[in-house]
Amino acid sequence: MSVTSSSSSLSTVAALWRLKPFVRPIVWRLVGGALSALAAAVIALMIPIVLEQIVRGLGDVAGAHLNGGVLGLILAGAAGVFALALGEAAMVWLRRWFVLTPATEVEFQMRSELYARLQNLPVAFHDRWQSGQLLSRMMQDISLIRRWIAFGLILLVVNILTIGIGAVLLFRWHWMLGVIFILTGIPMWIQGFLFEKRYGVLARRSQDQAGDLATSVEESVHGIRVLKAFGRGKHALSRFSRQAETLRETELRKARAVGEIWFWLDLMPQIAFGVSLITGIWLISTGGIDVAQLFAFFAMATVLRWPIESIGFLFSFMLDARTATDRVFDIYRETNSITDPEKPVHLAEPRGELAFEGARFRYQDAGAAERDLLDGIDLVLRPGETMALVGLTGSGKTTLTTLPARLYDVTGGRVTLDGVDIRDFELSELRRHIAMAFEDATLFSASVRENVLLGRADLDIHSAEGERVLREALDVAQAGFVDTLPDGVETIIGEEGLSLSGGQRQRLALARAVAAAPKVLVLDDPLSALDVDTEALVEEALRHVLAETTALIVAHRPSTVALADRVALLEKGRITAVGTHSDLLRTSAHYRHVISSLEAEQAARTGTIPIITEAMNEAAQNEASATEKEVQA
């Protein structure tokens, strides 16, 4: 997703002023750096004045025919200029000492706060944003802001002041020379104003395109197995090349814009030098100034040349920083709808009763004419009960499992734990009471121990108690394979656990949910990647774990349904039947249809695929119809 900044109406200064909270702790260091840089600039401006005195002194000595005095004056002048140069170098070093370390602190604070915000923002936010866009803001944009604070901001301010002070000093020798300097600067300021409008748009477009490119790289790396399996590497490369070419074209347009401003920044000083030289010679001929003054004027103009030429670079740097700030604040402006209540409720000893009361939910991008995906869910899980949730694909099973832990909030009705609306709990407490295991098992680049005990912030994971909890969870999940890894439970799992098989990843994810020791356990088909024998062992172990834990299990196979005390049938966003497996088989035709679908999938998975003829299918339908009539009678 490419995000267009909604803060484009802000002026550049106002946009950058939003960095104030991060810069405030180091503002005095920045002031010290700016004063040091200004002192260096003032010392540089003093050199032409010293040179004027040397040239005038040489003229006087030469006129008096004092040859020995000439050498002494040259040596004295050289020593004075050398001392000023040392002073300027010392001030430049002091500027860097003042600002470099504090600027990295700003970078650290911005990254930390942005990461914390990404962790706190709801899943709905991450559904809308590409990971590459977030990564480019986290790394590239904040790094650019740090460089601008440490380097660009101070030099821009100091160089503008230097140009102002130098322009005033140019009037010291003759007002006409100073006017020439001012007049030749006007076209540069006009071009600078036009440059800001054009370059700001290009800078934003470039940084957004860089984020899209980062997303493509990340997706292709994560999906490398799919691309190789389908032989689509060239297709991915072609798509990447198109995006990279688009970014290159934008960068070229930026370079052309910078080149145009540099043209004026280079041309106008040259014109100023030429006009000033002609005017200076004329003034000498008329006695308006002497040679020493003209020499000092050109020395001063030479000192001012770098500050003038640097304005283009620093100005574009400032606009890049402004765009980076806009992009970072795109995230800061996002509101978190899933937050802690002002007066949270605390449950010291939760019983584990989970209830859905008229719960409704629709995704944020759903059309106005579309019905709610969950259209008034009424369901109660008694404390310690295991409830299987079954339904056809698209009925909303997985979405329903995201509501108890507030990964999403209901858009109508409510979900309760022991009669308390889950929105009245602090999120940290709610997620201690309710744990989840997803069908798509996600692991982190950390050790097996750290992955499994991720949900136990209350434990020292290396303590004896931590070891006990770890081993119990691994035993339940039948994850003894970890002991065969190179470093056992201390083995570092590769990114997203891709060095493990699907079944191994799923078992570790299940162990993580079990180790959290929740009162309510929500499992979204956690055994789908397991072989038949391992699945049977896990199910047997789970029966002991679930004996005192309320569990909601999305079932995609009959064997999972067998774990449940009761079964809930989800149909078109509503719970249409609740009961035991045998009761629902007897009373619900739709349930029989769902179970037959699950059995067919199970048979296909185990290799015993039944052959369903049209006659068999018609007979099954007649039997279901007859049973339905009996129930109605």
From TrEMBL:
Bilayer topology annotation: Multi-pass membrane protein
Organism of derivation: Microbacterium suwonense
Major localization listed first in the record, in broad terms: membrane
Pfam families: ABC_membrane (PF00664), ABC_tran (PF00005)
Membrane spanning residue stretches: 26-51, 71-94, 148-169, 175-195, 261-285, 291-308
Residue ranges of domain ABC transmembrane type-1 in the record: 31-320
Keyword Aminoacyl-tRNA synthetase: no
Domain ABC transporter positions: 354-597
Subcellular location: Cell membrane
PROSITE patterns hit by this protein: ABC_TM1F, ABC_TRANSPORTER_1, ABC_TRANSPORTER_2
Keyword Hydrolase applies: no
Protein name: ABC transporter
Keyword vocabulary terms for this entry: ATP-binding, Membrane, Nucleotide-binding, Transmembrane, Transmembrane helix
